[in-house]
Amino acid sequence: RELRRVVAPLSEMEGAIIRKCRRAGVALDELESLVLVGLGIDRVAGLEGAARLKRLYISCNRLRSCQGLEMCAALEALDLANNELARFDDLVPLRSLPSLTRLSLERNPL
């Protein structure tokens, strides 16, 4: 019998995070700032280990929900401008970010 390893494909965001960490020579748990602007990202994924992340710039993508950002409790600044956030319910995960003091939502269909 042949055993095959099945690996789920990485999302656009997960792939971008991995590439940026490798280029910068840092581990995900060391990141304090991350720029993922204009990459076609449609969902938040891959931030599970980003405990120190304070600034996330994820504008000009295709996000319809903030689900997945709740695990970034250290976030202070979040740029979600020019995405596809259409309902205030899409922002509910942001309630669990106690340090969030700067939020950009411009050019979303809210």
Distance between the termini: 54 Å
Instruction: State the total count of DSSP E strands.
Output: 4
Biggest beta sheet attributes = 4 strands, parallel
Strand arrangement across the biggest beta sheet: 1-2-3-4
Number of DSSP helices? Answer: 1
Structural class: little secondary structure
What is the succession of H and E elements? HEEEE
Note the overall shape. Answer: globular
Our estimate of the beta-strand percent is 5-15%
Mean of residue pLDDT? 89
User: Radius of gyration from the CA trace?
Assistant: 15 Å
Contiguous low-pLDDT stretches (5 residues minimum) are 1-8
Helix content: 10-25%
Keywords:
110 residues, little secondary structure, four-stranded parallel beta sheet, 1 helix
Task: Provide the fold topology.
Elements: H1 12-24, E1 33-35, E2 55-57, E3 77-79, E4 102-104
Parallel strand pairs: 1-2, 2-3, 3-4
